[in-house]
Model the fold of this input.
Amino acid sequence: MRNDSVLASSILSLTGGPANVTAVTHCLTRLRLTVADPEAVDGEALGALPGVLGVIGMGGTALQVVLGPGVVEGVTAAVEKQTRATAAAPAPTKPTGPAALRRVANVFVPLIPALIGCGVLAGFNGLLVNAGWLPGLTPALAAIASGFMALIAVFVGYQAAKEFGGTPILGGAVAAVVVYPGVEKVTAFGVHLSPGQGGVLGALAAALLATRVEKWCRGRLPGALDVLVTPTVTVLVAGLATLYGLMYAAGVVATAIGTGANWLLTTTGAFAGLLLGGLFLPLVMLGLHQALIPIHTTLIEQQGYTVLLPLLAMAGAGQVGGALAVYVRLRHDTALRTTIRSALPAGLLGVGEPLIYGVSLPLGRPFATACVGGAAGGAFVGFFAMLGTKVGATAIGPSGWALFPLLTGNRGPAVAAAIYGGGLLTGYAVGFAATWAFGFRRGAGVETERVTTRARETA
Done:
């Protein structure tokens, strides 16, 4: 049985102890730490810990420890508990990185487990409905799967206020305006609003405005009035702005996102898939992939699935194919082959960091050729979109083989799974072939290649 506390203690001991950690956060797969003294971190020993899939140094005081989905949440909680127990720990600060994108991502990441659970149930319920099985159960499953999505705006508002320093329940209260049925009686810009107009984008904007209004009020009112006036003014001002501006504007943006995604795939599907599949790994390295989270969520809210995620997931397939080529080519490098064997299961399930940072990126060329494999897989899936068959995911988070239970599309889940599987096989094959042919220096022997790589890593 996994012991999160023991792993957390080991991680902290190799990062300079709890007193050296100034901030603790996590995403779907990574524990993100900010340390006061980077020199106190033993990155090599940290990466060798059982349960740690990889270590990513973001420069400066920021550090990411790859633990994988289902593990990172428990270990993060244990790390937070142990750092809070250290009196000498400095006041928490936010980690470095693309700040705006990271903070927006922090709003949506906590919602991913519910998106996954409801997405799987929605897909399973769709199979039952199409097959005509268990008609007495399918309405109940539909209610369970759809309830969260019907109120996702409220959760977005709550999380946004929490992330940006406001009172979470006030952010949720203002965002609830977006999904309230009575908004259909309100006229903005000459048209009646509709419940859910603007979706998660409108809820995010409403909560951000509510947070600004709340902070303005709290800085100007004495305590006796603050408890009564601040919540009232916050909900009133932000609520009116949401009804008479934000919902309409966010609705226009959300509609444009849906229309643009559909046009992109039906018109330039193969080319769009090639670009998205080929460039996703560099986007992940730069942290720019976080900007896609609200877009995915908007598409799921609008259409029931995001057509972008299956294309982006092909990047992982290219990475797996490239790693297999390295495994075969560098057959005398026992340590590297051991790393690949341990990282491949995670890579097949969509957790690509161990292969990226443990294999392809240090070697250099295999990272680029893995991107070629991802581009080929993306082009394969995008080509079918041009023919009228769209492949989508009902939730975000998983990729690789783990995405199969969440697949659907305009032709049903079976067709979507077949096309997605074909894309994975294409990514594996092209990633392998490209890495075998171009992933190593010409004329270099196996041992020379590896020695040169090691020299570059330590330079």
